Structure formats: structure tokens, C-alpha cells
Amino acid sequence: MIFRTAEHSDIKQMQVVRHLVKENTLSNPDLVPDKDVAYYISEKGKGWVCEVDGQVVGFSIIDLLERSVWALFVDPDFAEKGIGKELHRLMIDWYFQQTKDKVVLGTAPNTRAERFYKLQGWTPVGSYSNGETKFELNFRDWSQSIK
After folding, report:
1. Do the beta carbons of residue 83 and residue 35 sit within 8 Å?
2. CA-based radius of gyration for the chain
3. CB neighbours (10 Å) of residue 124?
4. Which one of 9, 14, 34, 145 is at 20 to 30 Å from 28 when CA atoms are compared?
5. Nearest to 86 by CA among 67, 60, 112
6. Sequence-ordered alpha helix ranges (H) in the chain
């Protein structure tokens, strides 16, 4: 497994992974065009990928401007191998090197993703209007969880 910063040339494979997931699926794949992914990994924040045998099998993207996690997805065939946890760590470590402001995310309730974020130290703080659970993570809690 190779973990590295996402590049524009990775976007097509990242989109494939995004559409393989069984939870938090997009009702319309056109809602997240390649140009949006490019904007998030180069201007709004930063992204990371995990490659296995030259194929992207997971990725994460954080939005520094909006102080939120924009994406964290792993190909279901590669679930439970620590890929999501490492992509999360890379993303959150980088975020807190840039700012000490809390970061937020939303995910569907009663999903593996919701359980994953709780295990990574995120605190549920309510719900978004679309029904997703809103989570927050602050620098103090993150720095204590990695000791």
C-alpha cells in the first residue's frame, strides 16, 4: 500500500472508488464532477490516495477553507485493512498543522462511516438539514487521541 498526496491525474480513479461504495452513495453521480474534485485537492484543501498495485483504492479530501472533511472513501474490496484510518490520520494531521480550528463533517446515521468517525475521536453534535449526523473534532481531542 502506498499513501501519497492526491494529484489531478488520480481524479478518474478517485471517482471510480467514490461510486463503488455501498453507503453514502450519490443519488446522481453528476453531483460531484471532476472539476469539483480538482478544485478541492488544489485550492480549497488537500487530498490523499492509497494505491495498491498502481490502482487507487481509497482517498480522502479535506476542505481547509470551510473547515470540513469533504471525502473519505475506500473501495469495499479493501475495507478493514487500515486504509481509511491512515487516510484519516494523514488528512487530520495536515489540517491541524494548518490551523487549530475545529473541523466538521457529515455522514449518514447508522452507517459504518458513523461508527468509524466515533472511533477516531469525533463528537456527534447534531444533524444537518439533509439528515446526516454532524460531527466535530477539535485540536485538543485529536492531539490527545494520537499520544
Report:
1. no
2. 14
3. 14
4. 9
5. 60
6. 11-20, 34-39, 83-98, 112-119, 139-145
Q: Which amino acid is residue 24, in one-letter code? A: N
CB 12 within 8 A of CB 54: no
Degrees to nearest 5, angle at CA 130 with 126 and 61? 80
SS3 content of the chain, % helix, strand, coil (to 5): 40, 30, 30
> From the DSSP assignment, how many helices (H) and strands (E) are in the chain?
5, 7
For the chain, give the number of residues.
147
Integer CA distances (angstroms), 21 to 24, 25, 41, in order: 7, 6, 20
Q: What is the pLDDT along the chain (147 residues), one digit of tens a residue?
A: 999 999 999 999 998 888 877 655 544 556 767 888 899 899 999 999 999 999 999 999 999 999 999 999 999 999 889 999 999 999 999 999 999 999 999 998 898 889 999 989 999 999 999 888 999 999 988 888 764
